[in-house]
Amino acid sequence: MSRGPIKAAGGVVWRLATDDDGAKVEVAIIHRPRYDDWSIPKGKLAPGESLIEGALREVHEETGYRVQPGRPLGEVRYLKKSGGAAREKVVHYWAMRAVGGKFSPGQEVDELRWLPIAEAHEFVTRATDREVLEHFSRRPPLTGSVLLVRHASAGSRSKWEGDDALRPLDEDGEEQAEELVRLLSRFGVDAIVSADYVRCVDSVRPLSEALGVPVAEEPLLSERGFPGREEEAVELVRSLGSPGGAVVVCSQTGVIPELVERLAADADVDLDGDLSVKKGGVWALSFYDHKLVGAEAFPPPKMSGQ
To answer: What is the pTM of this model?
Structure first.
């Protein structure tokens, strides 16, 4: 029986450095003695680990730095040869701003260098790493993140007899809301906005309590407030995408796909496939100068028993 591809993830870790010529972007590249190569930090996912969680873990393990994820940098594919056989490996990357920490050499990584992008491009060993660095260099490194969350599980709309705006999360939804804290908090969230529906507010309440950031309710983001005011909602989300910041926005399935589609169309960003996400899923939208420059969908967090 054929096995699927090896899944891995990593990031282009960057910082601003100042010299006589002013501020410039530097990226971290690492030396791996096992392969005697210079590489962008990356590694295989642990069982049950999501791509973004695996990327953040691997980057921290290999560099020692805490990072804030930014725009997605796509994926690279290549054949990994082992024991006379070859298997496809797929590696997903993000731009990641270093926000703290320190490198310590170890068995897997014995040296780290901070280099300007052009020098790093020439220094890395693999052509696939050069592709990722080229992708990173095409856009400004510092972007703003809007994490557009579809509310967590809230039972059946048809079985709820009261005002739909008052329908609460069910037990699964409460667990999803708790699990979302781990993912969303990694982005350095400084504001939380929610449609004025109970299930939307409650989906981000655990995050609010964990971070000490209040939830601002916004009727424009609900299925009642959105129709006829679509462009206002688009402008609202654009305004939240300030460079270096991250804002969580919780909304509904009757809003999110059209909102993402309008933002992408205005910025000529190509999005493939279905723009909806399952309950508890997240669209991570990256902005520069209040214009969409990247977007990717994260699946709902895995819950106990899955």
So the answer is: 0.92
